[in-house]
Amino acid sequence: MSERQILVGPFNRVEGDLEVRLDVADGAVRAAHVNSPLFRGFEMMLTGRDPRDALTITPRICGICSVSQSAAAALALAGAGGAAMPEQGALAAALLHGAENMADHVTHFALFFMPDFCRPVYADRSWHGRVLARFTAGEGSGARAMVEARSHLLHIAGTLGGKWPHTLAIQPGGMTRAPDARDRMQIRKTLRAFRRVLERELFGAQIEEFAALDGIAALEGWRTGDAGLFLEIAGDLGLSALGRGPGRYLSAGAYPLEGGRVTRAGVWEAGAVRPFDPGEIAEDLSHAWMLGAAAHPAAGVTVPDEDMSDPGYSWCKAPRLGGATVEVGALARQAVDGHPLAQALAAEGGVRARVAARLLEVARLQLWLEDWAAQLDPGARFMADWTVPGEGAGTGLVEAARGTLGHWLRIEGGQIAGYQIVAPTTWNFSPRDTGGVPGPLEAALEGCPVSAGEETPVSVQHVVRSFDPCMVCTVH
Amino acid sequence: MNILWLQSAGCGGCTMSLLCAEDPNLFDTLADAGISFLWHPSFSLETGAEARRLLEAVERGEVPLDVLCVEGSVVTGPKGTGRFHMLAGTGRAMLDWVRALAPLAGQVVAVGSCAAFGGMTAAGGNPAGAIGLQYDGEHAGGALAPDFRARGGLPVVNVAGCPTHPAWVTETLLMLAEDGLGAADLDRYARPRFYADHLVHHGCTKNEFYEYKASARSLSEMGCMMEHLGCVGTQAVGDCNIRPWNGEGSCTRGNYPCIACTAPEFEEPGHTYTETPTIAGIPVGLPSDMPKAWFMALASLSKAATPKRIDVNAHSDRIRVAPGSRRRGS
């Protein structure tokens, strides 16, 4: 039996810095320890400030999920003060947030995930030449096309949010800027152009057709566009069986509109969906460089262990739902929402499932964005009056591109008395808990094949990137 | 010209913003100017051991380094060790890497206000001990000494902003590539003057409201945000309203205040970001190069002369009163 340890880092093409320690035996990963190596302390910075400052500070936790952070902060503040957005304000906020999520998905696919198939280790594969042409880092025609389309798509953020990232446009009472008739047409024009790129480059067919795929057989029959290329690669490399997660998926429900959230909230497990009770969340600190006891985020604190003492090995806390690990992200969101393809993929649960579910969400999200833009009413109110409460508590749960994001806020004497954040990758890349149960990624990496002499196992890279981690959000 | 890009303690938003470069896209913009990345954490194929070997080769001088770009603040905590950010896989603090690599670079560029001054990462009690590359807030001297000069002779070039406009970064890099950025092209905080000699106020679409001090009282009103809502666009450097963001946007066009994100210590204005502090009813922080008495006199005159159209629109979320015809007056 051959045993060795591998330290993978800097782990790039993820957002932020990541280190993964692998115990390898007999050609496979036996155990993985995931370290989020950066601590900044945003929750500590917020304490003692005017609650409104959270709207300026929390987006700056993350430059890729910035609007998600601001949407969560606005919801938490609204909950603390009883504010609510007018119908059209919520619609404009969803458009802004959806544009960011869409941009993140295509960035992940074209820049972060696909380039790994360009590696020389795959030089003998029938698809290698095509993937080189499309996704060679910083050069491929697919990467170029998506980067360009993404910057045009984010004109929606310029119109509704002033700039991206780090907008202050989303407020507890609505949106700072009321879009006019011209803005509405600009947004619709931008979305039509984006659809053209998606259909030409990513899907090679109408997006409605991809959104209507109803199971694994239909998915495996998809041949066109970069989606088809990915599915061909996934079939050849067996990516459906690689990197299976815990099989429990959480979604808080995406895009709160007047009539409710656009996607359902819940926990998917073994084909059944049960309600999501945020009261079941607790953050375990046993293997984090954090002091204190496990707590619900409403009562949680952030006190870094400056000695970085054992058995801690990450700045990331370990959130658990009812004591168990859960996976979050596009796969979770779409499965909980009940999409038939996503439910089949959730049962599969590996690298292919995560990436295919993200593509499915790209298709569905494009349809939603088009619908919301058509519904924009330039004559409506986009902001309701709101005053910051002197006392109160609120929770803001949203769906970032990478999954469920929660803010828990407590206001005392007109100031922030407590602020806790649980980000998507906090869930997915959490360290072990008191019971020694590894986090979702750590579990998904167990069993990954490692060939002799491999320093940075390519299977591990596929699995890690399939989660689309955002490390700056993780610890914040 | 090659670039090594390190992401230190920040949010990654300056890279995400950089990817919004247009006409042409980022990759074409750089490639066409002969600029390539030795390594970039978001774009490069190399991971883990491959990336470590590259960093080590640069440190040993085997790979000449033209430009070192650092995004994000440099954290010094806990207790001065920098261990709040150990560069993954290397067992060394980013603080250590930055100090090792900067003297080897032809030029060093701090991308964003975190890398320049500490930025938002230094807010509150600065729990992680965040500082900039060559500044700690307003004070000279950060991870590198005040007298640090890169091999090419410049101090750290501070492309400040939170985030940076994509063109601030690409144009700085293009100028460096053709040796077209000298000490005289940098302002007192070593920010490139091509964007830092402008004020956010220049080209602000609310200028007519500003002229009459027709002020918004709450976010969503169209009026000028200086008097009540914390806007410091008349003092903040940046060409945000001359060359807008993401198509046609800017903070003030998004109808929220400029918070001077290009300035050191913008993260701690000493008051709520979206509220203008006043002393005896007079806003603190008037345009810095205008005598206060003059400003007050002009403001009260212009307030008294405010046309109805401007007064109504200032307190509305959209244009309610259109400009009238010359004959009828307005």
Number of self-contained structural domains of chain A: 1
Shape of chain A: globular
The CATH topology of the largest domain in chain B is given as: Rossmann fold
3D shape of chain B: elongated
Largest interface: A-B, 91 and 85 residues
Helix content of chain B: 10-25%
CATH topology of chain A: Cytochrome-c3 Hydrogenase, chain B
Give the CA-CA distance, first to last residue of chain B.
Answer: 58 Å
Task: Point out poorly predicted stretches of chain A.
Answer: none
Output the CATH class name of chain A: Mainly Alpha
| CATH H-tier superfamily of chain A | Cytochrome-c3 Hydrogenase, chain B
- What class would the helix/strand composition of chain A place it in? alpha+beta
How would you summarize the topology of this molecule?
The complex is a heterodimer of chains A (476) and B (330).
Chain A: E1 3-8, E2 19-25, E3 28-35, H1 42-46, H2 54-57, H3 66-81, H4 87-113, H5 128-135, H6 141-153, H7 155-161, E4 170-171, E5 174-175, H8 181-203, H9 207-211, H10 216-220, H11 225-237, E6 248-251, E7 256-257, E8 260-261, E9 266-269, E10 272-274, E11 281-284, E12 318-321, H12 330-337, H13 340-348, H14 351-375, E13 392-400, E14 403-412, E15 415-422, H15 424-428, H16 440-445, H17 458-466, H18 471-475
Antiparallel strand pairs in A: 1-2, 2-3, 4-5, 6-9, 7-8, 9-10, 11-12, 13-14, 14-15
Helix pairs in contact in A: 3-4, 4-6, 4-7, 4-14, 6-8, 7-8, 8-11, 8-14, 12-13, 13-14
Chain B: E1 2-7, H1 13-18, H2 26-32, E2 36-39, H3 49-59, E3 65-71, E4 74-75, E5 86-87, E6 92-93, H4 94-101, E7 105-111, H5 113-117, E8 130-131, E9 135-136, E10 139-140, E11 157-159, H6 166-177, H7 193-196, H8 207-211, E12 278-279, E13 282-283, H9 292-304, H10 308-314
Parallel strand pairs in B: 1-2, 1-3, 3-7, 7-11
Antiparallel strand pairs in B: 4-8, 5-6, 9-10, 12-13
